[in-house]
Amino acid sequence: MAAGSYFSITALVILIQLTINLNLCLAAAPIHPSGRNTRFIRTSCRATLYPNLCFTTFSRYTTRIRGSPRLLASTALSVAFNTTRSTTKAFINLSKHRGLKRSEAAALRDCVEQLGDSVDELKDSINAMSPPRRGDNFHRRTSDIQTWVSAALTNDDTCMGGLSRKAMKRDFKTVRRQVVKVAHMASIALAFVNRYAADTH
């Protein structure tokens, strides 16, 4: 492969990552932290598998969350959804790049399909996360949310497996890191949903 093609793919991957991060920053709520709300976020994040990423991400949403486990869970679902959707759109563009090997383009297309399913599952979860109403089977609803987010996490892992094959070029490590972030966000969201479900039973 020509050096120019290699460079262009690398530059495109970096641009995609910057675009995803910019979109997530623009979607964030203004930071107006209170001590109590910040402590709630920090304590909640310690119960996740990725406490540092969790606190860095959600400390900017203290005003929105206001110490509420339900709002924490719904915010985490929204962040996971936005991260996954932005990554999916970026991968669609990357899969069309002419400098890719056939195996690389195929792996990206498979990944787009998996992440697209995750987007749908996270969207369903967000819609089901509305406050419970009288006569509503909320326990059934939380069980559905847990199932959907778990499925999204499985899809993310499947995508990552396809991108980790030896046939993928070294400059795809940036792409793989983005999928890892998508999976970590889904994992954090699932932890918060599980906590909320346990608190409401």
UniProtKB/TrEMBL annotation:
Cell membrane as UniProt keyword: no
Ranges annotated as spanning the membrane: 6-29
Highest taxon, organism lineage: Eukaryota
Molecular function GO labels: enzyme inhibitor activity; pectinesterase activity
EC number: 3.1.1.11
One Pfam family of this chain: PMEI
Keyword Metal-binding tagged: no
First-tier enzyme category under EC: hydrolase
Every Pectinesterase inhibitor domain range: 36-192
Keyword set, alphabetical order: Disulfide bond, Glycoprotein, Membrane, Signal, Transmembrane, Transmembrane helix
Assigned protein family: Belongs to the PMEI family.
Protein name listed in UniProt: pectinesterase
